[in-house]
Amino acid sequence: MRFFGVLALASLFVSGFASTVADVEADISIIADRLTTLDNSITAFPSTGGTLAQALTIHSNSQNAITALNQGTTDAQNVAPLPISEADSRSILTAFETLEPIIEHILGGLITKKPAFDALLGGITGLVTQDLRNLDASFTAFENAICAGMPADLVGECEAVKGRIDAAFAAANAAYP
């Protein structure tokens, strides 16, 4: 009797950390929303004459995107039950692919607006650089978790998306040494 009680308690403990495909898809939707908000704040930042408040809005939106990415990573790493079906994997990959143009636009915007950040006093470029590095690290962990969960026939497609996103991050990181 005691063994079954321990087994039941253990299964409750493990299931408390399990995620579903729906959780991952919801995370991707939240990530897309947060990245879009970040993109909008970067786009709104003027090429000249930007304010510290506008720059801090970008920082705040970066932090919100990073939080969503970290949650998405956790959920992607803990999807159960395994293996994930082909249809569910395809659905996750399709949702993941929608993030590519958003993140590429964000990173292009950061490159374009760097002179405007440099013109602000108070080390804003350093803060943007730190946010970029943190966003890169969180996005890398997220995309690694997504691609690791793909069946063999979808890994190449996932890795191709990952490669294009990583190249966009490399260009942005080069602009912010």
Automatic annotation (TrEMBL):
<dbReference type="Pfam" id="PF12296">
    <property type="entry name" value="HsbA"/>
</dbReference>
<feature type="signal peptide">
    <location>
        <begin position="1"/>
        <end position="18"/>
    </location>
</feature>
<dbReference type="InterPro" id="IPR021054">
    <property type="entry name" value="Cell_wall_mannoprotein_1"/>
</dbReference>
<protein>
    <submittedName>
        <fullName>Hydrophobic surface binding protein</fullName>
    </submittedName>
</protein>
<dbReference type="GO" id="GO:0005576">
    <property type="term" value="C:extracellular region"/>
</dbReference>
<keyword id="KW-0732">Signal</keyword>
